[in-house]
């Protein structure tokens, strides 16, 4: 029997609706309009497309989008300077540095120039530590989106063996930490893993996050496993061999329409948080009062 799909488009739509309601309540109560600054370095077509998508979603939920575009020849010091200015600006609530940046730029140094209280993309060391230790802070958007997607379908994590394929500091590493905090047993796999097929075959939850098309073969998947494909490659191909994996998994994310929409939805939700928008409970209470 084929796996059921984890519909990220549907779950993200609900999160965006909630965020729009929170933003509207913030505007009514204080007149404040949240602002997300997006910083784009260079002329990579895919990056420009992603930034436009994020700007469109900002407009949909009532968040102001401030777009900062820098030349491909921008140095690390120049980029750090721009991010520091945004970090100190009272008009900006959240900052997104579109990645990857050009190869000559020290991406980590750029990330660390973002003030932690404006790191709505969850890319700084401070945000990673907060996620790992359970402190207040912003979670990396794709890992947080994955967790919210699993929660939306009532998929239990405690006691499960989760295999994370990929160890990037903004995806693989933090999603493993979030699952560990939820009492999963976590195994990280990467380019030096010599028995990848065996490791994946023992997983109750597989998270693929390597950016290599169909690296994870369908016949590796354990019967009844949950498969989360966080990869996106040319031709709408993920990191998992979807058709074969679907025949063995219980739940699987499509590509596109799985993890991707959740990433943007979390980004905007955390921007609303940074601006001081009320939580969902406050919206419910306000709605109850208005109905009286």
Automatic annotation (TrEMBL):
<keyword id="KW-0658">Purine biosynthesis</keyword>
<protein>
    <recommendedName>
        <fullName>Bifunctional protein FolD</fullName>
        <ecNumber>1.5.1.5</ecNumber>
        <ecNumber>3.5.4.9</ecNumber>
    </recommendedName>
</protein>
<keyword id="KW-0028">Amino-acid biosynthesis</keyword>
<comment type="pathway">
    <text>One-carbon metabolism; tetrahydrofolate interconversion.</text>
</comment>
<comment type="similarity">
    <text>Belongs to the tetrahydrofolate dehydrogenase/cyclohydrolase family.</text>
</comment>
<keyword id="KW-0554">One-carbon metabolism</keyword>
<dbReference type="InterPro" id="IPR046346">
    <property type="entry name" value="Aminoacid_DH-like_N_sf"/>
</dbReference>
<feature type="domain" description="Tetrahydrofolate dehydrogenase/cyclohydrolase NAD(P)-binding">
    <location>
        <begin position="140"/>
        <end position="275"/>
    </location>
</feature>
<dbReference type="GO" id="GO:0004488">
    <property type="term" value="F:methylenetetrahydrofolate dehydrogenase (NADP+) activity"/>
</dbReference>
<dbReference type="InterPro" id="IPR020631">
    <property type="entry name" value="THF_DH/CycHdrlase_NAD-bd_dom"/>
</dbReference>
<keyword id="KW-0486">Methionine biosynthesis</keyword>
<dbReference type="GO" id="GO:0006164">
    <property type="term" value="P:purine nucleotide biosynthetic process"/>
</dbReference>
<comment type="subunit">
    <text>Homodimer.</text>
</comment>
<dbReference type="GO" id="GO:0004477">
    <property type="term" value="F:methenyltetrahydrofolate cyclohydrolase activity"/>
</dbReference>
<dbReference type="GO" id="GO:0005829">
    <property type="term" value="C:cytosol"/>
</dbReference>
<dbReference type="InterPro" id="IPR020630">
    <property type="entry name" value="THF_DH/CycHdrlase_cat_dom"/>
</dbReference>
<feature type="binding site">
    <location>
        <begin position="166"/>
        <end position="168"/>
    </location>
    <ligand>
        <name>NADP(+)</name>
    </ligand>
</feature>
<dbReference type="GO" id="GO:0035999">
    <property type="term" value="P:tetrahydrofolate interconversion"/>
</dbReference>
<dbReference type="InterPro" id="IPR036291">
    <property type="entry name" value="NAD(P)-bd_dom_sf"/>
</dbReference>
<dbReference type="GO" id="GO:0009086">
    <property type="term" value="P:methionine biosynthetic process"/>
</dbReference>
<comment type="function">
    <text>Catalyzes the oxidation of 5,10-methylenetetrahydrofolate to 5,10-methenyltetrahydrofolate and then the hydrolysis of 5,10-methenyltetrahydrofolate to 10-formyltetrahydrofolate.</text>
</comment>
<keyword id="KW-0368">Histidine biosynthesis</keyword>
<keyword id="KW-0511">Multifunctional enzyme</keyword>
<dbReference type="InterPro" id="IPR000672">
    <property type="entry name" value="THF_DH/CycHdrlase"/>
</dbReference>
<dbReference type="Pfam" id="PF00763">
    <property type="entry name" value="THF_DHG_CYH"/>
</dbReference>
<dbReference type="Pfam" id="PF02882">
    <property type="entry name" value="THF_DHG_CYH_C"/>
</dbReference>
<dbReference type="GO" id="GO:0000105">
    <property type="term" value="P:L-histidine biosynthetic process"/>
</dbReference>
<keyword id="KW-0378">Hydrolase</keyword>
<keyword id="KW-0521">NADP</keyword>
<keyword id="KW-0560">Oxidoreductase</keyword>
<dbReference type="InterPro" id="IPR020867">
    <property type="entry name" value="THF_DH/CycHdrlase_CS"/>
</dbReference>
<feature type="domain" description="Tetrahydrofolate dehydrogenase/cyclohydrolase catalytic">
    <location>
        <begin position="6"/>
        <end position="121"/>
    </location>
</feature>
């Amino acid at each position: 029997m084929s796996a059921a799909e984890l519909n990220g488009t549907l779950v993200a739509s609900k999160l965006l609706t909630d965020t729009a309601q929170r933003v509207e309540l913030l505007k009514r109560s204080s007149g404040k309009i949240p602002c997300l600054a997006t910083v784009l370095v260079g002329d990579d077509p895919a990056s420009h497309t992603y930034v436009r998508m994020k700007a469109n979603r900002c407009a949909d939920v009532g968040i102001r989008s401030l777009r900062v575009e820098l030349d491909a020849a921008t140095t690390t010091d120049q980029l750090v300077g721009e991010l520091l200015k945004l970090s100190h600006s009272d008009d900006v609530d959240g900052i997104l540095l579109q990645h990857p940046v050009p190869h000559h730029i020290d991406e980590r140094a750029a990330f660390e120039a973002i003030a932690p209280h404006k790191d709505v993309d969850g890319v700084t060391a401070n945000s990673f530590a907060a996620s790992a230790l359970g402190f207040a802070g912003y979670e990396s958007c794709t890992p947080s989106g994955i967790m919210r997607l699993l929660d939306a379908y009532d998929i239990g994590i405690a006691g499960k063996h989760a295999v994370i394929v990929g160890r990037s500091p903004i995806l693989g590493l933090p999603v493993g930490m979030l699952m560990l905090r939820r009492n999963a047993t976590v195994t990280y796999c990467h380019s030096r893993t010599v028995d990848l097929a065996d490791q994946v075959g023992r997983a109750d939850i597989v998270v693929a996050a390597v950016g290599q098309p169909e690296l994870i073969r369908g016949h590796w998947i354990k019967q009844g496993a949950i498969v989360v494909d966080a990869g996106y490659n040319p031709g709408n191909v993920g990191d998992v061999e979807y058709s074969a994996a679907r025949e063995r998994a219980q739940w699987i994310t499509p590509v596109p329409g799985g993890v991707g929409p959740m990433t943007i939805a979390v980004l905007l939700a955390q921007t609303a948080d940074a601006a001081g928008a009320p939580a969902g409970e406050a919206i419910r209470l306000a709605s109850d009062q208005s109905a009286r």
